[in-house]
Amino acid sequence: MTYSKELLTNVHKHCRNNRKDIAVSAVCGCFYCLEIYPAAEVKKYTGVVDAICPKCGIDSVLADASGVEISAPFLIAMSERWFSDAEDEPA
């Protein structure tokens, strides 16, 4: 599946200030390490609001309660958008 650059850019905001979303989510996913796991596994936050992935320690966690897709294809697209070495750098 193909996701628009605009969608991937808009979804990125959901990896910030996401503690409340994680508290009411069933599933989370990290678009750095591409792991999907129960939201209850998230225990650490930067400051008090940005989730840290329990698998890799990076703050690239998305929660299903935020309305974003938590699936392998979507996490891969997000990873390519935000962590690729391509010339088309994220805005």
List the helices and strands and how they pair.
Elements: H1 5-11, H2 19-23, E1 27-30, E2 36-38, E3 44-46, E4 50-52, E5 61-63, H3 72-83
Antiparallel strand pairs: 1-2, 1-5, 3-4
> What count of structural domains?
1
Could you name the ranges where pLDDT drops below 50 across 5 or more consecutive residues?
none
What's the total helix number? 3
Please trace the helix and strand order, writing H or E for each element: HHEEEEEH
How many extended strands?
5
Compute the CA-based radius of gyration.
Answer: 12 Å
Q: What percentage of amino acids are in beta strands?
A: 15-25%
Q: What is the general shape?
A: globular
Ends distance: 22 Å
Mean pLDDT across every amino acid position? 93
| SSE-based structural type | alpha+beta
Sequence of strands across the biggest β-sheet: 2-1-5
The description of the largest β-sheet is: 3 strands, antiparallel
Percentage of residues in helical conformation = 25-40%
How is this structure best described in words?
Helix content is 26%, strand content 18%. It is α+β, with helices and mostly antiparallel strands and 91 residues long. The strands form 2 sheets. A 3-stranded antiparallel β-sheet has the order 2-1-5, with no helix packed on it. It has a two-stranded antiparallel sheet with strand order 3-4. The longest helix has 12 residues, at 72-83. The protein is globular and about 30 Å long.
